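Entry under discussion copied across for reference:
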Amino acid sequence: MTAGPTGDPRLIPLGAERLRVEWGPVGLVLSARWPGGTRREGLDAAGRRALEVLEELAGMRRLLTVDVRRIRNTDALPSAVRAAADASRPYAEEGVTPLIAVAGVVADAVADALAAQGATWAVVSNGGDVAQRLVPGESVTVGLVPRVDARQPAARVRVAAADGVGGVATSGFGGRSFTLGIADAATVFGDRAAAADVAATLAGNAVNVDSPAVERVLAESLDPDTDLRGRRVTRRVGALSGGEIEHALDRGAAWAEAQVEAGRIRGAVLTLGGRWRFVGWPGEGGVEWLEEKQVFQKEEKPWKFARS
């Protein structure tokens, strides 16, 4: 790979307002605007910050896989690791590790860097995790997918600066990481991407049902290095009855409602088998549908391993 205009082959300009950052299997896309136009140097500086954060997290990989209840003092930790621990700690009783928050942490750190550079509109996409920093009067349109592996959104929602949403994350069965649940997609809106990242994973876990159509296996049988050792993750989801789909969505919605009431997230959108549930912000009334909303039977879908 040869160096581009930035001098670093891992920083790839995508026009005047966008930059792609590639670091191993991780790919981020940065988009930003400044008063009066664009600033290439601002994008490049944020790209370098992304690489710093990724290196920082990689160097602390072992600690990131430790149950957050065992991490007592975070003051001496690198800022990105501390942010991951802080984002996961509200859910400590669910047995989470800081690894659950790292994608959102990276997006947040880079979006913060763009805002610090004076950007008035900044959006950082790290796979299914998006951080946005908007000044008053600015907004961004966010797509809502019917399945975590869908190529196109089925709906979209406008996020304005006044909405208090600094991060959006989507998780579910068939995504990059293991799940304990069966959600086709669990999208969460939070004040920061790290908060949304953690909650999206757990909301996806909560969309669940006991059914012979759902096959689960120990996580370590699929990945010996997983931080979910001893827990059974979803391997395959077959055809579910309408009642099973509704029951699973009821469970997920109840979990999300509790988080909204606790002030941990702004809202969530859950999907399974073509059915949608809206909790908190923006609600179904705040969504613009891009295709006809249909209820269909979920097809059997095997889980294919992809390390996150």
Remarks:
- Helices lie at 40-59, 61-64, 79-88, 102-116, 193-206, 219-222, 242-261.
